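Dear support,

I submitted the protein below through the web form. The confirmation email said the job was done, but the results page showed an empty box. After a refresh the structure appeared. I'm attaching both so you can tell me whether what I see now is the final result or a partial one.
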Amino acid sequence: MDSVKLILTSALMSSFVSVMAEEDSVKRKFNLGAYGEAVMTRNFYSDNIYRYKYPYEHKDDASHGRFDLPHMAINMGYDFGKGWSVGMEIEFEHGGTESAVEYEADESGEYEAEVEKGGEVALEQLWVNKAFKQGMFNIRAGEIVVPVGQANAYHMPNEFFTVYRHEGESSILPNTWHQVGLSFWGKTKYVNYEMQFLSGLDSERFGSENFVHYGCVSPYEFKIANSYAAATRVTVKPADGVRLSLSGYLGRTFKNTLAHPSAKYDDVKGRLGIGSLDFYVNRGAWIVRGGATYAHLGDAQTITEFNNTLPLHHGQDGSPSKHQPVGESALATSLELGWNMLSVVPKAEAKQKLYLFGAYEYYDSMLEGSQKESYNWCGKNRFAVGLNYMPVNGVIVKAEYSKRYLNDMDESAANANNTHVGHTDEPLGQYNDEPSISLGVTFVGWFIK
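What the results page shows now:
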């Protein structure tokens, strides 16, 4: 009898160990992570839509505040073995969306579509990857991140000190830029590389303040691919904590839409070229990040003229075009410097960090263009100082004071504004400064990896 019990116990223990090993294997193959941000901001400047056209009229407007959930993303992946894996990222911007069809009893019993909350929900990544030679060469296909510029390659909240992502690149380029495409990538000890084949951006959605930012967003259930583009990124890591990256993009943007231009536009291509350099240094108690991105758009004036011929968007009718002048070129630069103040405290826990940081950006979505004189306010300098407190790995509490300075107003625009307000003795040649304070709580973590 005892021998039977021993056999049964041994069999049960063997089954239990087998199940646990199988579950452990699944856990090792399955990855689950997330990151998110909750932010409060008080802006000490006007939010009137005419504050740049008639700045003098709005220089004493009241401040305004905001609570926001800029980004919340869930990352998942699974390793099937033999080099095959999948990955996905679902992002909720500004709290997602809340919409429903409601039956209005007090409005003749009508059914109405109600939008209760703004925001966006996007499937930012969904790809299948095949790895060769231990990851030195990979082929990836699906919805992928386009790593052009610093803000697209490093967009999680522990990869920048400021409360919000860098304004410059986030304004002039899509952010986080993701499209369906094909990627060839790999990494070695000192070099990471990636080359991508994508559909071109849509020039119908370009604008003044945001340049090509909305060009990768399709209002349809599919992404039009009448034109194609290529993107690349190369990162060199010469030493621990040091990174230098070059990235670029080249593609056509005109006629990559459902609109059918007339024959007079046959030679218009709307070629977009982007070049970007960024670096990162993490040595001891110091972190320095910086970068510069320049973009040039061919046929910008013709694109502006064509977009203005499209029907205006009213309700569900018309084109999604912004009907705004588009610049011929755009520029974004940034620099961040942070020092861990706890590095001088002998008994401070190693995992705790308190960074004092300063940041500077200059960006201009209308660096060159036929209507630049009316859009000088698109050129902005932004300074920020603040703190990042990291009580444990993965959690960051951020505080920041920032001030945005706009380029001087063009003389003709200043004279027009002067005439509008009826004053001749006021210094109207400068746009109003835009100071603000922001507080944020963020997290980044892999729960299963």
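Response: this is the final, complete result; the empty box was a page-load delay. Residues 274 and 295 are 4 Å apart (CA to CA).
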